[in-house]
Amino acid sequence: MTEYWVSQGNKWCDLCKIFISNNPFSIRTHELGKRHKDNVTQRLSTMQKDGAAKEKEQQQAAKALQLIEAKAKKSYQKDLENNQRNTDGDSSAAPGEVVHLLSSEPDGHITAGQCDC
C-alpha cells in the first residue's frame, strides 16, 4: 500500500509570536537566532521585575497589617484601662469582661449594669 502525504503542520513560538516549520532543523535554527534569544532575555527580565514587584507589595501589605494590629492592640489596652477606671467602684466586673453601661429593662427604663453576653 502506498502512504499518503501528511502535512507536518507548523509550530507556534510563544515568545516571537510566529509559526515555524515543524521540523528539527527549522526549530533549532529559530531557537539559535538573535530575535528568539532577545525575546527570551526580555521575557526573563519581565518575569524577574514582576516577581520583585509582587514580593515588595506583599512586604508592604505585611507591614501595614502589623501596623494595624499594633494600633488595635494599643486601642484595646486603652479601652481596658478606661473600662477598669469606670468600673473601679463596681467589683462585680472582671477585667476584660464586657460591661454595658446602659441597658434597657423590659419595662422601658434604662439602667446601668452588666449583661450575660
UniProtKB/TrEMBL annotation:
Keyword Flavoprotein found: no
Domain of life from the UniProt record: Eukaryota
Organism for this UniProt entry: Triticum urartu
Keywords (A to Z) from UniProt: Metal-binding, Nucleus, Zinc, Zinc-finger
Claim: Ribonucleoprotein is one of the keywords in the record: no
Intracellular or extracellular location(s): Nucleus
Gene3D superfamilies: Classic Zinc Finger
Domain Matrin-type: 11-42
GO annotation terms (biological process): mRNA splicing, via spliceosome
Gene Ontology molecular function: RNA binding; zinc ion binding
PROSITE patterns given in the database record: ZF_MATRIN
Gene Ontology CC entries for this record: precatalytic spliceosome
Protein name: Matrin-type domain-containing protein
